[in-house]
From TrEMBL:
Naturally occurring in which organism (per UniProt): Carya illinoinensis (Pecan)
Phylogenetic placement of the source organism: Eukaryota, Viridiplantae, Streptophyta, Embryophyta, Tracheophyta
GO CC field: plasma membrane
Main location as per UniProt: membrane
Protein name: Leucine-rich repeat-containing N-terminal plant-type domain-containing protein
Subcellular location: Cell membrane
Leader sequence segment: 1-25
Membrane protein topology class: Single-pass type I membrane protein
């Protein structure tokens, strides 16, 4: 009897274990539905071979063996979602995100799962009108009451998100419908039906109308995003009552009006993105009370006035972007010294005055500064050297002075990769080798921009030490001398802009050996820039987000260059743009230019080039800008090629050219050329005329002369004529009689 109790307990445990195991056995109907899923996988097949589907990879069941979880993100799934997946009525978690699923979801899809809590279909290619996914026998029940998370972002869904979709979604915590094609208003009953929602993302759709009122009733709301739509009107004042908000992101809409000072109620706010709208007025005077703010994006609006001093109390700021507004005031009076976390400062295209703020040198984390297109004066202070991480520095289009001092200071910023000082230092001299005090400076510089400064002097040899330089922009200055051959020693140089200067001499053959233009392995850095670079060309403003996008090019237009274009130019196979226009180049167009098969822009206009357009130009398939106007070219424009797609103005000013797209054919030109040739052979033509005239004169006086000078000749001559007349009369009578 002593051992009977343990034996009974063991038996009881075994029975309960059997019952428990049996209760967890996979429901066979659910198992069959899972096996029928038509998904194709690019990754290794799912391990769904065991008899019990509850033990399958990425599948979970409840205590009744009903499937509750299907968790298959990033599994390379392809195909469509079948209608019978809705028969898995116990499903609470469905995650098919980051796959390649396509097609429309089944009708009533969202209404099929009465116990669904988590639905993640994000990052697929699913499509269809969302309103069809809720209809249920004519009723509109919307999301099930159990729903907590819905993420259908990054698909191709369309239609209007009706307010009743959220009618039962009282437990909704997160809703992400971004990056689709939804239209209409943002649902305005969120505060009624989903009071506990924390995350709302409606961005990158086609929503219109106003931002919903009463968002402040969403007392749990932490993140609200609705950027990149067509929303209009004011920022609803009620939003400032949602005191748990950490992020407001509404960029690229049509919002108007001011930013209320009541925004300071949002003391937990860390990110405020309102850029690319039509907001106006001044910044809130107490904005400094947002002391948790890390990212403030207000650029591209109509904001005015001076920056409130309290802004400098936002000591956690990492990004401050206020560019493209109408801010004004002396910027040097602002004390940036407390913004130790500030990494990115963008104040470009405003009306700021004063000098460069010395207090910025205390912002040790600064990586990028852009204060271009303002009205700053004075010199760059030497304290800038203290910014050890400064990589992007743009102060173009101001009124700065002392270019030599600026170069000597900035040379010591060891992390500096982009330096844009366009249109400053007017009429000063380029720093020479003797004036440079840091011979090994600019060790990481990739882009040097000193265009539109009217700088004088020759290209200084210290440039040859910038071994990481990729773009040299010195156009629109008064640089003299010739193009130095040592430019070819810069291993990464692929963009040379020296247009509109006073440079003379020939196109150096050494330039045809630039390593970065010969081999694609040495091309520009393709990494994204901290700020975009804006470049004007042909009256158009171009935006470049990486140095690579600027493109390998040589721009030497509007100088005094002469001589032949070297045949070695065909070595520069990576060139995208070549502009040699408005110089004095002569000779034929080298056939070797056709070897530059990546060329997109070629301008040889306004030179003294002669001969024909090489037929080999038919291999330049990527050309979208081309001109050889105003030269001395002749012959037919190679036909049946891309060259006919350009306007006739690309060939004007060459009287010897013919064929499409010019309005006259080559027959006309050949006739004109014959006349021109006759004119050129004028002396020979005149001698043939003279010899004919002399022959006529000789014959005339050979007959008439003796008649005049000799009486006997006259008697004989007239007797001869009388005999001829009598014979003719006899012949006529015989014929007529």
């Amino acid at each position: 009897m002593q051992h009977s109790v343990p034996r009974d307990l063991l038996l009881t445990f075994f029975l309960f274990s059997s019952i428990f195991s049996a209760s967890h056995a996979c429901n066979q109907i659910d198992r069959n539905y899972l096996l029928s899923l038509p998904f194709n996988t690019a990754s290794p097949s799912l391990n769904w071979s065991a008899p019990d589907c509850c033990n399958w990879e990425s599948i979970s069941c409840d205590h009744k063996g009903r499937v509750t979880h299907i968790w298959l993100p990033s599994r390379g799934l392809r195909g469509s979602v079948p209608p019978y997946i809705g028969n898995l009525t116990s499903l609470s978690h469905l995650n098919l995100s980051h796959n390649a699923l396509s097609g429309c979801l089944p009708v009533r899809f969202f209404s099929s799962f009465n116990q669904l809590e988590v639905l993640d279909l994000s990052n697929n290619h699913l499509a269809g009108d969302i309103s069809l996914l809720f209809s249920s026998n004519g009723s509109s029940d919307g999301w099930p009451s159990s729903i907590r998370l819905v993420d259908i972002s990054n698909n191709d869904f369309n239609g209007i998100i009706q307010s009743w979709f959220l009618q039962r979604a009282q437990k909704l915590d997160k809703l992400n419908v971004s990056h689709n094609s939804f239209t209409g208003n943002i649902p305005n009953y969120l505060y009624m039906h989903s009071p506990f929602v924390r995350f709302l993302d409606f961005s990158f759709n086609d929503h219109s109308g106003h931002i919903p009122d009463r968002l402040g009733a969403c007392s749990k709301l932490e993140i609200f995003r609705a950027g990149f739509n067509s929303l209009s009107g004011l920022i609803p004042h009620d939003i400032y009552s949602a005191t748990r908000l950490e992020e407001i992101s509404l960029p690229s809409n049509n919002l108007t009006g001011p930013i209320s000072n009541d925004i300071v109620n949002l003391t937990k706010l860390t990110c405020l993105e309102l850029y690319e709208n039509e907001l106006s007025g001044r910044l809130p005077v107490d904005i400094g009370k947002l002391n948790r703010l890390k990212h403030l994006f207000l650029d591209t609006n109509h904001l005015t006035g001076s920056l409130p001093p309290s802004l400098m109390n936002c000591t956690n700021l990492m990004t401050l972007k206020l560019g493209l507004n109408f801010f004004e005031g002396d910027i040097s009076t602002l004390n940036f010294s407390r913004l130790h976390q500030l990494a990115t400062l963008d104040l470009w295209n405003n009306k700021f005055t004063g000098s460069f703020p010395v207090s910025l040198s205390s912002c040790k984390s600064l990586r990028a500064i852009r204060i271009a297109l303002n009205q700053l004066e004075g010199q760059i202070p030497p304290e800038v050297v203290q910014l050890k991480f400064l990589s992007f520095f743009s102060l173009g289009y101001n009124r700065l002075t002392n270019v030599t001092g600026a170069i000597n200071i900035l040379m010591r910023c060891k992390s500096l990769s982009v330096l844009l000082l366009t249109q400053n230092f007017l009429n000063e001299a380029l720093p020479t080798e003797d004036s440079i005090v840091v011979p090994d400076g600019f060790r990481n510089l990739q882009y040097l921009g000193l265009a539109h400064c009217q700088l004088t002097g020759q290209l200084p040899i210290w440039l040859s030490k910038l071994k990481k330089l990729e773009i040299l922009s010195l156009g629109f200055n008064r640089i003299t001398g010739s193009i130095p051959g040592w430019l070819s020693t810069l291993p990464r140089l692929s963009c040379i802009k020296l247009s509109h200067n006073l440079i003379i001499g020939e196109f150096p053959k050494e330039l045809c050996a630039l390593p970065a233009l010969i081999s694609k392995h040495a091309l520009m850095d393709n990494s994204s820039l901290i700020f975009s670079i804006f470049v004007t060309g042909n009256g158009t403003l171009f935006e470049f987000k990486s140095l690579y996008n600027v493109g390998p090019q040589i721009s030497l237009e509007n100088n005094g260059l002469s001589g032949n274009i070297p045949l070695e130019i065909g070595h520069l196979k990576q060139l995208y743009g070549l502009n040699l226009s408005h110089n004095y180049f002569s000779g034929n167009i080298p056939d070797q230019i056709s070897e530059l098969t990546n060329l997109e822009r070629l301008d040889l206009s306004a030179n003294q080039l002669s001969g024909k357009i090489p037929k080999s130009f038919i291999s330049l398939h990527f050309l979208h800008e081309f001109s050889v106007a105003n030269n001395n070219l002749c012959g037919a424009i190679p036909s049946g090629t891309q060259l006919q797609s350009f306007d006739a103005s690309a060939y004007e000013g060459n009287p010897g050219l013919c064929g499409a797209p010019l309005p006259y054919d080559c027959g006309h030109i050949l006739h004109s050329n014959k006349d021109i040739q006759d004119e050129e052979d004028g002396p020979a033509i005149r001698w043939s005329h003279i010899s004919t005239i002399l022959g006529l004169i000789t014959g005339f006086w050979g007959v008439i002369g003796p008649l005049i000078l000799s009486h006997n000749w006259r008697v004989v001559y007239f007797e001869f004529l009388e005999n001829v007349k009598n014979r003719l009369c006899v012949m006529l009578r015989n014929v007529l009689g």
